[in-house]
Every structure is written in C-alpha cells, then in structure tokens.
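Support request, priority: normal
Reporter: lab tech (M.K.)
Component: structure prediction queue

Hi team, I submitted a job for FAD dependent oxidoreductase from Polaromonas naphthalenivorans yesterday, and the status page still shows it as pending. I've pasted the exact input below so you can check whether something in the sequence is tripping the parser. The sequence length should be 430 residues. Please let me know if I need to resubmit or if it's stuck on your end.
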Amino acid sequence: MSVHAQPTHHSVVIVGGGQAGLSLSYYLQQRSIDHLVIEKHSPMHAWRSQRWDAFSLVTPNWQCALPGWPYAGSDPHGFMKKSEIIDYLDGFRQHVNAPLLQGAAVQRVTPRGSNGFNVITSAGEVTADQVVVASGGYHQPIIPRMAERLSKDILQLHSEQYRSPAAMPEGTVLVVGCGQSGAQIAEDLHLAGRKVVLATGNAPRCARFYRGKDVVDWLADMGYYDMPVHEHPLREGVRDNTNHYVTGRDGGRDIDLRKFAAEGMALYGLLTGLEGETLQFDANLQENLDHADGVYNRINESIDKYIAKAGIDAPPGERYEPVWQPQGERRTLNLREAGITSVIWCIGFQPDFGWLDLPVFNGRGQPGHVRGVTAQAGLYFLGLPWLHTWGSGRFSGIARDALYLAEQIEARTGASEATADMEQAEVLLS
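Reply from support: The job had stalled in the queue. We restarted it manually and it finished. Here are the results:
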C-alpha cells in the first residue's frame, strides 16, 4: 500500500506491525472495520534483529496463543528456538493478512480538530478516527553515560546487538545486568567456555520445574496469569518490575548464578562507576543473590500451599539452598588486569513516545490508561507489559487485550456512525 499526497482516511490506524498490531487487525477484520497497520521496518522485525542466535522462549510453547493461531507443534511443554519462533510468527502474519504499510516510520500523531487524528509518516500523511499504539515499550536501549569513558579498544554492545560467543573478541566479557537477557547471555557465554564477569542487580529468579511440573503450569492453574493489574498487590507498580530470570534452553532449566560462580564466572554487585580503567561496584552481591533466591523460594512456597489446599498428589518439594557464597564483597575491578575486551549492556530499554503529541503521559513518559484505553477519546495502547495482565506483553495474553480493544473500537465506531446519521437526518429535515 502507499500513502498519497492527499491524505487517505481510515477508521483506525494501528502503529506497529508486531504480534500486538496484527492481533488487533485480526479482530478488526472480523468486525469489518476499516484500518491500516503502519510498521517502521517489517512485521515482527524485533524478533529477527534483537535476539541472539541461541535465544529460546522462556515460557512453554502452549502459551503461544495468538488469535486464531495457537501453537500446533508436537512439543507444547517445550520452548521454541529463535528460528521456530520466527516461523510461528511468519505463519501468523500470513494468517492475518493485515492491511499493511511497511517501511514507514510514524513521525507525529496529533489531534484532528475535535474528532480524530492526523498521522504523519515518512511516507506521507493519513488521517484516522481512532489510533492504536502497538509499538511496544522497548524503544531506546539503555546505556549509561559511563560507557563514553571506556577505552575505544573495548567493544561495547547492547543486549539487542549480541549474537553469539563466537562473534565476540577474545578476552573476558563484562555482562552488565542480570535480568532475563543478562542472565541468559552470561549463560550463553559461560557454556561456550568464555571468561565472564557479571555485574548483578536485584533481578528476581524462579524455578523452571517444581514438584513435577513447569512452574508456569502451576501458576496458570493457580490463576496468576488471569489476575488483572488492579488486583495485583503492587497495582500498577508491577509494570516496573524486572522479569524473573530462567531459561527454556535445552528443554528448560533454572539459571543459578551461584552455580556459575562455582564454575568460574566472576560475580560482582551493581556497577556504579568508572575511574580511569577501574570499575566501581556496590557491595551488594550477597544481597542481590539472596533476594533472587528468596523470590525463587517464595514462589515455590505459594505452589506448595496451592497443592496442599487442593489436595493434589505431587512429588515432594524442597527449598533451594545456596551452592556458593561470595567470600566478601569486591568493590573495584581494573579492566586491563581483568582482560576485559568487551562489554554487553543488559540493563533494558526505555519507552520513546515523543512522536505522540497528545496529553496522555505521566512524568516518566509512560502512558496513562485503563486496560489500554486512554483519557484521549479514540486513542489506545496495546502490547505493553501488564497492560491488563501478566500476559499482556507476551504471546499468551495479547489476544485477550486485542479483543477487548476491538470491542471498544467497534462501540465507538458505531456511536460515531449513529451521530453522523442523526446529523445528516437533521440537515435533510431542515
């Protein structure tokens, strides 16, 4: 499709052609609602460009439940690898066959009078009665300013740029951050025999399997994935939480940083600064490890209580006991002496909605909404973490959110058409 000099009009414009935008297109097509999906690159671009070679899902395949496209393979309790994920998503794209404008970056969205929006793109302008922002919340890689002071002969990557141990220069690799990406990338390097220094944070972790089942299966049985954000103990604060680190690699297993340390990985506390060639760390490695293990055990304890209350016959459980303890806190590390030749920053992303010229954001640049519906009539968000439930930003919950927004859009479309019909009738009768 192309955008002409004279703006074309659509009932709905969806910004973003990932799994969120295409999921909404699926439901809008069912309702015969005119719409256009605008994608800056190509559909599912991030899955091809921002995942390392050994990447696999951390949630079991049965949770891949995009609308009209459930997982249909032979291993529902396995974990798809990168190539399999891309195949699954390519199939979904073909299944939906959305009205798509790709290779066009949305540069500005502004109100259009008292009703509707102007959507300015690198390919021209369109107008819309309603706009859905489905571009996710992971836009700008976070790299601290101290990175500017590292020696130019040290390779620096963000986690989205990392591909494999073989692609890294010889020498020690410093991985900064131990959330899902940091822990898994550190493991990838460690398994390849690379010397790794890992700067930890307060990321939590969870077991892969417990008492005979995947922990995800237990939590699904317990109704955790159906809990809406307003019922979560942290309320909207849960959106700021770091994801638990675990892996689906090689059939799935725990990630235990203490085990890695016992095998030679060098663990430090939070990276806080750089003086010359010397890195500085908080003395909180013990605290970070204890926090992660505490969350791990508390999740298992909640499963124990559920099993006991429901009278389920399951294998006995056990409490995790540390397999390694740090012998004191190390506050500094000289880059040259440690042989560090590369750094991988695994400290996440921040949202960038600067192109959305509408008053719906808080002081941290995050959109205010209730289940994706904003205070700006006709403007919605989709695909954000904990938009409504844990699965909102994942393959498991996006269908529910997309269906809900399709219903809101349909209701507003119907109300607008009814108003237009009444205005036309008044004109004819005047």
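DSSP finds nine helices and 21 strands in the chain. The chain has two domains: 8-139+351-429, 142-345. Let us know if anything else looks off. Ticket resolved.
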